[in-house]
Amino acid sequence: MGKNQGPDADDARFAVNMQRRREELGISQADLVRDLRANGWATVHPTTISRIENGDRPVRLGEARAIARALDTGVDHFLLSPAESRLAGELMDRAGEVRAAWHRISATTVKFLIERVELEGVIGRAQTEGVRTAESRMAGERASVDSGNDLESALEEAIQVVELEAIEAVSQGQSEFERHRGTGKGRAGEA
Q1: What is the DSSP string of 93-145?
Q2: Would you say 33 and 46 are in contact if contact means Cβ atoms under 8 Å apart?
Q3: Interior CA angle at 160 toward 156 and 166, to 5°?
Q4: 7-80, superfamily in CATH?
Q5: Residue whose C-alpha is closest to residue 40's, from 69, 11, 60, 76
Q6: Per-residue pLDDT reduced to its tens digit, 43-64
């Protein structure tokens, strides 16, 4: 077996990657111990975590699984070389950010659709109460009071807004991203 293979090498990689991941997540050893105890590893002590991370004590398979779960990753991740582990962590983090952004878009779409339905109701009420747009008034329906211009303008604006589609917002966002990307700046949202 080569120098970077075998149980001792796995233990060393596990220790380095475990500590790196814990620190990436901003979790102290004491916090990790609390989480591990809360999730079934009742006999874990802070010195156990310290000794594993320092390479003074090998980790058992069940302990490795518990630690990996607590640090939101898989055991295999801890067995990678440090460079591979950093890359895997970055991939997982970026994928998590994209997934979270997707969920925010979904939630915002629901809010948009609810607000649009409510606006449709208000438009219907305004039209029932006789409010007309300037266009419909010019087509022969003469308003009895000239003070309706602000109300007509509000109705016209509401009708334009209610016709917006959620997919148009996504398309606009894609266009802005492509324009931003073409400037050579960093990730979207960075100046």
Answers
A1: HHHHHHHHHHHHHHHHHHHHHHHHHHHHHHHHHHHHTT---HHHHHTT---S-
A2: yes
A3: 155
A4: lambda repressor-like DNA-binding domains (1.10.260.40)
A5: 69
A6: 999 999 999 999 999 999 999 9
Cβ atoms of 22 and 62 closer than 8 Å: no
Distance of alpha carbon 163 from alpha carbon 57, whole angstroms: 65
* Per-domain residue ranges of the chain: 7-80, 99-182
Alpha helices in the chain (DSSP H): 7-24, 29-38, 46-53, 61-70, 75-78, 82-128, 134-138, 149-162, 166-182
Instruction: Output the six-digit token pair for 166.
Output: 């959620």
pTM score over 0.85: no
**Res 85: pLDDT:** 82
Joined together, the tokens standing for residue 26 give 């901003």
- Coil, strand or helix at 39: coil
